[in-house]
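Priority: medium. Attachment 1 of 2:
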């Protein structure tokens, strides 16, 4: 069985949601605390020099990292979890999948641990990345439709991001006020019964 290295509430939760939407089996290897020195970090570093979650070890032993890459591999095996190939919606799926990890994740990489990157006034880096992330979400909100999911009635792997994103800064209350469409998609996907276990395990349910 493929092994997913992750920690509750981190980006690995997105991959867990994707696997659950696809009905794919996996074994979760909990490496909570990987962001500081210790056995969990050592275990993850042996597979991923960047020491990031998710890190996936496939059944054939292949190590796969990066949420977007995992999504695309999963899509190869579950084509129903994205709009049809060759459609404008499929192009948007690709765009937003890469947009999430290229833009939003960068603000978290630098803003959540500013002291790693600057020696003076790390709080200024944190504040500026927080503001930039909010602006990114406002742009994303402007792209959203009327739901219930990102692509209307069709559930896609892109929807797996929203329950997790709204739990990260700037948190649920901000999304409810400033990005209600994103908040609604997060709520709707979270109501799917096949996701209850994984959402609860990642502390993403009330």
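Attachment 2 of 2:
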């Amino acid at each position: 069985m493929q092994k997913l290295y992750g920690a509750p509430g981190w980006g690995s939760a997105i991959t867990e949601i994707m696997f659950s939407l696809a009905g794919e089996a996996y074994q979760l290897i909990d490496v909570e605390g990987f962001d500081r020195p210790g056995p969990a970090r050592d275990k993850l570093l042996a597979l991923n020099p960047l020491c990031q979650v998710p890190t996936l070890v496939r059944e054939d032993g292949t190590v796969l990292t990066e949420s977007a890459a995992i999504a695309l591999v999963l899509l190869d095996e579950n084509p129903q979890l994205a709009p049809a190939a060759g459609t404008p919606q499929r192009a948007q799926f690709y765009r937003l999948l890469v947009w999430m990890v290229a833009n939003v994740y960068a603000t978290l990489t630098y803003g959540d641990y500013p002291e790693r990157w600057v020696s003076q006034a790390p709080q200024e880096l944190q504040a500026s990345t927080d503001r930039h992330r909010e602006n990114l979400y406002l742009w994303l909100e402007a792209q959203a439709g009327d739901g219930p999911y990102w692509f209307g009635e069709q559930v896609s792997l892109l929807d797996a991001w929203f329950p997790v994103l709204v739990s990260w800064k700037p948190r649920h209350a901000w999304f409810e006020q400033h990005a209600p469409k994103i908040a609604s998609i997060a709520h709707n996907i979270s109501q799917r019964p096949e996701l209850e276990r994984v959402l609860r395990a990642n502390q993403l349910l009330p």
